[in-house]
């Protein structure tokens, strides 16, 4: 009898403590106590304490209900004013629990001293050079550095089917080429010039290497074009970077590579390119007929700039034809695209529509192509795509920083029905807040970024896939990806809120602690155990380090020169220049009938929950970008407490 009394007493005590914590702070744990039910106290549910009408029909703003099923009734209405004054006062008192000097979020994130900013800038510089110098010492002229064994890595010639390696590594000094413009961002003109001369003297694309068209385009072609533009820019914002004897060799190399990629666009019934080419022989005879949407539809920026630099429409034409072909195959019901398509039949093999792997840069390049080239059809496609994303992928409350319900999250859905297909998001989706900033939707960008930052805080990295239902990683590795850093940098540029400097510092300290090894920074094989793989991908130097450095370098020429620049999807710098809005040829891109068909209204307005930059309240620029109550809610939802 005594042990039964003891057990009952402990259970009652635990429930009592949980209830007290829940009532006061929303800190109650997820309890099961061995039974087949859960008591899941999410912070926004505290609002229930202040509601009088419990019978209103539930609003669909709670994606977390998929975790444990509906647990309570919600009133509809964030914006309703009926019943107003008393409810408003009570909601104000609810948020006031986390206001003021007692709020740990405000204390942690509200200021970032200049001295600390300088220290972080220097830390980012050292991070880059630790990777770059060791690549040059131990790996060049091979493509990548193995940072644990301090050796170089090239294509896996013994196993041609190892596409994880061979899609990217083409035996063309990938890491050096990819890092060229980062050297200028760091102000190292002399090393930039030396690196350019090394590329000119040692790199050839006449190689028996089968590479992915997408990877060769964004990493190699994009970097060569960017470095050439910066070398020949008469404004010279980074100082005197041009040197005597330079005769457009980087542009010639870019042209040569692009010509070798062109066979991917031949002999396809849809105009959508094959995913891979051999740089010597063209499309391999055993090539598959399936490609992903991002791989086929993210060539327009680099190919378009090349066409306009050399006056040859071929490259822009094939890239634009592929985009139009994909766009014409979107769902008539939802406006969404799938993630894998057959290039001969035009049938969708993968019907998942999301914002991560296989789709991410397709959306990115619709907007960036418009910004660079000024072609209206690109913006029309982007507007329509963004509206479909907001209507079918976005879950959660209407407003990021107001109201009740779960935080906004973009899920993977069936392209035809809009029904959720799975319960994971991937790390590549962390780029999307940066794209939302470019589109003026800073409010939604703030919320999605906060969700990914919470995942980072929990693991010290971003798992390749995170299951929001299980609150656990589905795919455990982290290959030093830049997407969260990129969005952090762009949100800081948009808001100048010190919160994002703290995020950058957290990311950099995690990288130093969890990924630094003898000769560089290594891929995390397991984000929980922190075991490592012997690989440092080229984008770590071309993007991750670059965005970290720029985040803390307020006086960088990119910020102070008075000129406007755009980052490609690989982080390469291109100026927004009027010469890229001029074509030396007649319009060779007539729209196929129906390819750009618009809804009944020719004016595509944004959904009501989108906020433009100039609608961000002034006070929000001096407080936390996301209210503490919502930060705590997100932290709770990813299992931080």
TrEMBL record:
Its cofactor is Ca(2+). It is a single-pass type II membrane protein. The keyword Calcium applies. Keywords: Calcium, Endoplasmic reticulum, Glycoprotein, Glycosidase, Hydrolase, Membrane, Metal-binding, Signal-anchor, Transmembrane, Transmembrane helix, Unfolded protein response. The active site is at residues 215, 360, 464, 483. GO terms for cellular component: endoplasmic reticulum membrane; endoplasmic reticulum quality control compartment. It comes from the Eukaryota. Belongs to the glycosyl hydrolase 47 family. Extracts misfolded glycoproteins, but not glycoproteins undergoing productive folding, from the calnexin cycle. It is directly involved in endoplasmic reticulum-associated degradation (ERAD) and targets misfolded glycoproteins for degradation in an N-glycan-independent manner, probably by forming a complex with SEL1L. It has low mannosidase activity, catalyzing mannose trimming from Man8GlcNAc2 to Man7GlcNAc2. This is alpha-1,2-Mannosidase. It comes from Oryzias melastigma.
């Amino acid at each position: 009898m005594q042990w039964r009394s003891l057990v009952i007493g402990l259970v009652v005590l635990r429930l009592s403590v949980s209830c007290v914590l829940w009532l006061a702070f929303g800190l109650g744990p997820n309890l099961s106590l061995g039974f087949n039910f859960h008591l899941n106290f999410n912070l926004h549910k505290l609002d229930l304490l202040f509601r009088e009408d419990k019978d209103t029909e539930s609003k669909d703003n709670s994606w977390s209900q998929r975790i444990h099923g509906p647990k309570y009734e919600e009133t509809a209405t964030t914006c309703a004013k009926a019943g107003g004054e008393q409810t408003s006062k009570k909601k104000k008192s609810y948020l006031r629990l986390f206001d003021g000097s007692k709020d740990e979020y405000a204390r942690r994130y509200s200021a970032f001293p200049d001295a600390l900013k300088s220290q972080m800038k220097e830390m980012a510089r050292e991070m880059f050079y630790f990777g770059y110098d060791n690549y040059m010492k131990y790996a060049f002229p091979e493509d990548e550095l193995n940072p644990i064994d301090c050796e170089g890595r090239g294509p896996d010639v013994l196993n041609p089917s190892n596409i994880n390696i061979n899609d990217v590594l083409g035996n063309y000094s990938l890491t050096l080429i990819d890092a060229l413009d980062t050297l200028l961002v760091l102000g190292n003109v002399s090393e930039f010039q030396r690196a350019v001369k090394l590329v000119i003297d040692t790199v050839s694309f006449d190689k028996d290497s089968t590479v992915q068209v997408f990877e060769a385009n964004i990493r190699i072609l994009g970097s060569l074009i960017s470095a050439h533009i910066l070398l020949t820019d008469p404004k010279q914002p980074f100082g005197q970077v041009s040197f005597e004897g330079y005769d457009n060799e980087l542009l010639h190399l870019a042209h040569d590579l692009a010509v070798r990629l062109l066979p991917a666009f031949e002999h396809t019934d849809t105009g959508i390119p094959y995913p891979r080419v051999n740089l010597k022989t063209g499309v391999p005879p055993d090539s598959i007929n399936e490609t992903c949407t991002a791989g086929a539809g993210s060539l327009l920026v680099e190919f378009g700039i090349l066409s306009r630099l050399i006056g040859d429409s071929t490259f822009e034409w094939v890239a634009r034809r592929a985009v139009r072909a994909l766009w014409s195959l979107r769902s008539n019901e939802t406006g969404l695209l799938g993630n894998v398509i057959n290039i001969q039949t035009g049938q969708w093999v993968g019907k998942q529509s999301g914002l991560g792997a296989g789709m991410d840069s397709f959306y990115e390049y619709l907007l960036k192509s418009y910004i660079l080239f000024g072609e209206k059809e690109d913006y029309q496609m982007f507007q329509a795509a963004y509206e479909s994303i907001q209507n079918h992928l976005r879950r959660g409350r209407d407003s990021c920083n107001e109201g009740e319900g779960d935080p906004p999250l973009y899920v993977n859905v069936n392209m035809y029905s809009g029904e959720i297909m799975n319960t994971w998001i991937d790390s590549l989706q962390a780029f999307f807040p940066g794209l939302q900033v470019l589109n003026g939707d800073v409010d939604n960008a703030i919320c999605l970024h906060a969700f990914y930052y919470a995942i980072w805080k929990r693991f010290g990295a971003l798992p390749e896939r995170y299951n929001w239902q299980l609150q656990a990683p589905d795919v455990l590795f982290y290959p030093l990806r830049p997407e969260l850093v990129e969005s952090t940098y762009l949100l800081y540029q948009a808001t100048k809120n010190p919160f994002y400097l703290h995020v950058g510092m957290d990311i950099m300290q995690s990288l130093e602690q969890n990924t630094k090894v003898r000769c560089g920074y290594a891929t995390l094989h397991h984000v929980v155990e922190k075991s490592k793989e012997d690989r440092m991908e080229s984008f770590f130097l071309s993007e991750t380090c670059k965005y970290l450095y720029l985040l803390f370098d307020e006086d960088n020429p990119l910020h102070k020169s008075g000129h406007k620049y755009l980052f490609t999807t690989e982080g390469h710098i291109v100026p927004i220049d009027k010469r890229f809005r001029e074509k030396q040829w007649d319009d060779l891109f007539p729209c196929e009938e129906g390819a750009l068909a618009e809804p009944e209204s020719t004016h595509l307005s944004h959904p009501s929950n989108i906020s433009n930059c100039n609608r961000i309240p002034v006070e929000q620029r001096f407080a936390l970008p996301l209210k503490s109550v919502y930060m705590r809610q997100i932290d709770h939802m990813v299992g931080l407490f």
